[in-house]
Amino acid sequence: MFDDNNDIKDLVARFEQMLQNDDFSYFDVEEFEELIVYYIDTLQFDIAEKAVSIARQQYPFSEEILLREAELLINREDYQKALDLLEYLEKTASSNPELYYLKSSALSKLNRTKDAVKSLEKAAQLNDDNVSDVYFSLALEYQTEEDYEKALDYFKLCLEKAPEEEDVLYELAYAFDQCGKINEGIAYLNKYLNHYPYSAHAWFNLGYLYSLAENFEKSVDAYDYALIIDNKFISAYYSKAQALVELERYQEAIDTYHEILDNLSTDAITYYFIGECYENMGDFGKALRYYNNSISTDPKLADPWVGIACVLDASGKTTEAFFYLNKALELEPQNSDFWQIKADLLRKAGFVEDALKAYLKVVELEPYKKEVVIDISQMFFEHGYVQNAIEAVKTSLIKFPQEPTFYFQLAAIYFSLKNNIEGGKYLEKALEKDKQYLPKFLNNHPEVKNNKFALQIIQKHNPDYEL
Hints:
- This protein has about 475 residues and is mostly helical.
- It is about 75% helix and about 0% strand.
- It has helices at about 5-20, 30-40, 45-60, 65-75, 80-90, 95-110, 115-125, 130-145, 150-160, 165-180, 180-195, 200-210, 215-230, 235-245, 250-265, 270-280, 285-295, 305-315, 320-330, 335-350, 350-365, 370-380, 385-400, 405-415, 420-435, 440-445, 450-460.
């Protein structure tokens, strides 16, 4: 294969001159391979097909050309034809690891994951030179199957063979997370960093795992090391800032975002994040300034419009907030979070029917958003639609029979109706499912403390609970 960029340019020019003149020029097998790969890589599939056709005329039995044809077919998404060709070729080239590697790609695209894994395992047996690539592909196949334990094993094997592969570090950290082995992942990356201390990507993924473990102090330290090694590592700046927000160190987060603005990028999202920090600090003036900067940079980014709405609401200007909230919903009409904020503000402003419509829109967009069911039920109940309040929760119980908050909500409604039998039944079930929710339940429904029947049930399930 050609290593020099000028060589491939000369080769391409000679081949395209031949096509233009409709004459014959000699190319050896290796040159045809190089041409086909070049045209695949540059997405010029029609010319790649011409190169394959001419190559096959000149070298009809060339294993290398047939492999490049299979590669082209995979890139053109003709997976079954590619698989047929590779299975034909397997009869004569069964010791070629690339054949099995390409075959696994076709099988994977045909959703034959188990067969793809077998093909990759065969490639791994035959391929010592590029076995890390095969391990990586195997890990991805297992990840597709959601077999994260096996995926993790192969990512580790891959990293042993190619310890400086950046992509593997990211997939490895994700696999540790999916396996529920975050602490093991932290230990693994710390050990890796003992050998490769200047890997910014390893420090970054260590920071990611520390964040998942909610050890945000160490997460910030890890991101700092990544930034010492690579001061243009924009993802590390963002992740560090987010960890600082979790620690409520908002000014440091703002300073980190400013490093992005001053040195790397003036993205609208960065202005938005700064505005969000100022909002959390209660500095609404600066929050509005940065939200407006974000809108000026990109008027189609919905988040700062919502940010302004929330600041206006917190400033006692709820009516004015609706203009900005509606603008956000124009930009992202399917965003259930925005609809929920709108529903909450409508409810707060006393627009009951509109609030209910907005809550129902949330449920339509995200049927499994359980907390909204409680909001809808409570609104129905507060405004006298008792049966609707009960039905809203009971309907959701069909989908979520183990959800304790639904049982608590039904208990509260029935106790309010002086129906102790039904109220007691649902309170019993609620406490059986989640005793930890009891303080929040009593805080939301203090009237239950005045119901002796309810108190007996609470004491039965929580004899040490102080009322």
